[in-house]
Design goal:
By secondary structure, the chain is α+β, with helices and mostly antiparallel strands. The strands form two sheets. The protein has a four-stranded antiparallel beta sheet with strand order 4-5-3-6, with helices on one face. Strands 1-2 form a two-stranded antiparallel ribbon. The two termini are 25 Å apart. 36% of the residues lie in helices and 27% in strands. The protein has two domains: 57 residues, no CATH class; 71 residues, Alpha-Beta Plaits (2-Layer Sandwich), CATH 3.30.70.
Length: 143
């Protein structure tokens, strides 16, 4: 239960290495943790439990891609993320520098988002993105 709790980054790396060695030797490793970034990085499969009920389960990539709204990650070479504020059909999930993650609303066209990004500046990256396990956890336990 919570094997990474209280560990500094060096301890987390050491324990991660031990767990990975066990997995490489064919041992199934089962643990519970709320440090979902680590779970996402270390685990092949995940089960999310809310109030004693399984709400999501399967391969990490499958669970991430099977739930949540359509998301786009858009990065401009320059120009920031303010261009995304006035979009109809999409809402901002998070921002980081010149990068923004948007959630497409039902019926929205991703090409409209791309057009708006192009009007704001040179598009460096435009791709779909599945929610992280942390975002997914928030979504499933709050619904």
């Amino acid at each position: 239960d919570e094997p990474f709790s209280g560990l500094d980054p060096v301890g987390v790396d050491a324990l991660s290495g031990v767990l990975q060695t066990q997995v490489d030797q064919g041992t199934a490793v089962v643990y519970s943790s709320h440090q979902l970034e680590l779970v996402e990085r270390l685990s092949d499969e995940v089960t999310i439990i809310d109030q004693g009920r399984v709400v999501a389960s399967g391969a990490v990539a499958t669970v991430r891609s099977s739930r949540g709204a359509d998301r786009l990650k858009v990065e401009l070479a320059d120009g920031g993320t303010g261009w995304a504020d006035g979009l109809t059909g999409a809402k901002v999930v998070r921002r980081d520098g010149n990068e923004v993650v948007l959630e497409l609303l039902p019926g929205a066209d991703d090409q409209d988002v791309l057009d708006a990004a192009r009007r704001a500046g040179r598009v460096r990256s435009f791709r779909r993105e599945a929610p992280t396990l942390t975002e997914l956890f928030r979504e499933v336990v709050s619904s």
